[in-house]
Design goal:
With 87 residues, this protein is α/β, with parallel strands linked by helices. It has helices at 10-22, 41-56, 68-76, 80-83; strands at residues 2-5, 28-32, 35-39, 60-64. The protein has a single domain (2-83), classed as 2-Layer Sandwich (Transcription Regulator spoIIAA), CATH 3.30.750.
């Protein structure tokens, strides 16, 4: 992913992650955010939905390579433990 995750593209991200998770047996989902500079609440919701779907299916879901802004959002929303267990 590149750019921003916001209300303009969060539904598409959610749809793509859902397709990946439901496509077949999967043990671990890694969402690389190295090239994402900004994420708003809609983007966070998409990431949390992917986490919920993955864990419901017995898999794990983790975001990696967080920009400072995205890392801050995970911390203030207390989503760090869910989405970035190493953070």
């Amino acid at each position: 992913m590149t750019g921003d995750i916001d209300g303009g593209n969060a539904a598409h991200l959610c749809s793509e992650l859902n397709a990946l998770i439901t496509a077949g047996p999967i043990n671990h989902v890694v969402v690389d955010l190295a090239r994402v500079e900004f994420c708003d609440v809609a983007g966070m919701r998409a990431l949390l939905e992917a986490h919920r779907r993955a864990t419901t299916g017995g898999a794990t879901c983790q975001v990696v390579h967080l920009s400072p802004a995205v890392g801050w959002l995970l911390r203030v929303t207390q989503a760090t433990e869910l989405l970035d267990p190493d953070g």
